[in-house]
Amino acid sequence: MAKQYLVTGGAGFIGSHIAETLLKRGDKVRVLDNFSTGKPGNVPAGAELFEASITDLKKMAKAFNGIDGVFHTAALARVQESIDNPFESNEANITGTLNVIQASSRAGVRRIVFSSSSSIYGDTLILPTPENVLPNPKSPYALQKYVGEGYLKLATIFWGLQTVSLRYFNVYGPRMPLQGAYKLVIPIFLDQKAQGYEMTITSDGTQTRDFTHVDDVVRANLLAMDSSSVGSGEAINIGTGVNYSVNQVAKLIGGPTTHIPPRVEPHDTLADISRAKELLGWEPEVEFEEGLKRTMEWYETMTRKDTDR
């Protein structure tokens, strides 16, 4: 029998992919989004749309009726934005998460899978990084995600919910944000190359990232929702266990580069994914070179559509 799931932020990058995959396997899907960052065009055909903000508990609570599980991907999900707009970011990422928990509990939802972030580790020297490393948030956004994880743990104790938090490492792929001041290095490089500019590499480009394809992130979410081995507020890394330098990314994309002054950011990220393998039976399937190729093909299609308008 098909189950019904709610995807908060289901018009966004990761949420829309989760919604689409659920529909393909025969589940019913309701998308909750206020389109502050998500796009109406990302909502997959067949999904029920409920337009509301997670900061408005009274309005959004109706979206949780009849729901078996919630994929909570809605967030203001950029470090610099959390610094520039700390109150707005805090309201969405902490109060919004607490609202999702309360609405879920009142509606009898079975489980919440929360989209957390590897940014909570800060600039750790322990690589690969396991989940038991002491968090060291270096931005309001990172702190907000860590607080969200804490609320999810408490939800299993006080509010009768099964919960699990997935700490994503540098997710990329089709539908990743292409606009705004907070987009990531891959779309920045793709934009610069498309416009005939040099790709700007901060510092010496030796800083590394554990890039994780969105398809692998989606699989992790579905396994976390279905697994009988989790549900008590576990935090689980979702990465590849392999990292690439910014210089390597630029070389794979191809084109001239230039260097700009360094900024405050972790020098390296690298996930220890032992817990994901053990508890979820999950490991990444998309190698970075293949994932980047798919992303570049999607980008070319998107920019071609924009040109043709």
Describe this structure in words.
- The protein is of the alpha/beta class.
- It has a domain at 4-169 and 213-239 and 270-285: NAD(P)-binding Rossmann-like Domain (Rossmann fold), CATH 3.40.50.
- The protein is built from ten helices and 13 strands.
- It has helices at 13-24, 57-60, 79-84, 86-107, 140-158, 185-194, 214-226, 246-253, 274-280, 288-308; strands at 4-8, 28-33, 48-51, 69-72, 111-117, 162-168, 171-172, 199-202, 208-209, 212-213, 232-238, 244-245, 257-260.
- The strands form four sheets. Strands 3-2-1-4-5-6-11 form a seven-stranded parallel β-sheet, sandwiched between helices. The protein has a two-stranded parallel sheet with strand order 7-10. A two-stranded parallel ribbon has the order 8-13.
- Helix 5 (140-158) links the parallel strand 5 and strand 6.
- Helix 1 crosses helix 7, helix 4 runs parallel beside helix 5 and helix 6 (185-194) runs parallel beside helix 8 (246-253).
- The longest helix is centred in the N-terminal third of the chain and has 22 residues, at 86-107.
- The radius of gyration is 19 Å and the shape is globular.
- 47% of the residues are buried.
Which key features would you list for this structure?
309 residues; Rossmann fold; alpha/beta; 18% strand; globular; two-stranded parallel ribbon; 7-stranded parallel β-sheet
Q: Looking at CATH, which topology of the domain at 4-169 and 213-239 and 270-285 would you report?
A: Rossmann fold
State mean pLDDT (0 to 100 scale): 95
Give the overall form: globular
**How much of the polypeptide forms β-strand, as a percent range?**
15-25%
- What integer value in Å does the Rg equal? 19 Å
Assigned CATH superfamily of the domain at 4-169 and 213-239 and 270-285: NAD(P)-binding Rossmann-like Domain
Return the string of H and E elements: EHEEHEHHEHEEHEEEHEEHEHH
Percent of residues in helices: 25-40%
Distance between the termini: 43 Å
